[in-house]
Amino acid sequence: xxVDRNALKKWQSVREFALGLPGAAEEFPWGxxxxxxxxxxxxxxxVTDGSHPMGVTVKLKDEAAHAHALSCPGAEPxxxxxxxxxxxxxxxxxxxxxxxxxxxxxxxxxxxxxxPKRLAAQLDAR
Length: 126
Fold this sequence. Notes:
- Keywords: DNA-binding.
- This is MmcQ/YjbR family DNA-binding protein.
- It holds the Pfam family YjbR.
- GO terms for molecular function: DNA binding.
- By secondary structure, the protein is an alpha+beta fold.
- The chain has a single domain, classed as Aspartate Aminotransferase, domain 1.
- It has 4 helices and 6 strands, in the order H-E-E-E-E-H-E-E-H-H.
- Strands 1-2-3-4-6-5 form a 6-stranded antiparallel sheet.
- A hairpin with a 2-residue loop joins strand 2 and strand 3.
- The longest helix has 15 residues, at about 5-20.
- The termini are far apart.
- The mean pLDDT is about 95.
């Protein structure tokens, strides 16, 4: 599976945004990239080696954002039972995939659901 340049650019922008959030760190459990805050995952970034379609998985508590994310081409509730907790997998290679700005909004919302209040407050101060 070839890596789609546009999807890769989006992925890189989203990863950079996620890792720029207060207290965020990248780890590689299961061989895929995740961004964590306070030892909790707030975005699954997957892999970029072409072995799987590129995408991001975020936790969206807000009903409108959750419904919007699920309406994206190819999006689905995350596997392993995470979908029931509000996690949505959004592919980046589909035609009509969300813009970077929207993806970053979702990453920020996901971050806020797991980040300690003091770190989320640093975001509001920016």
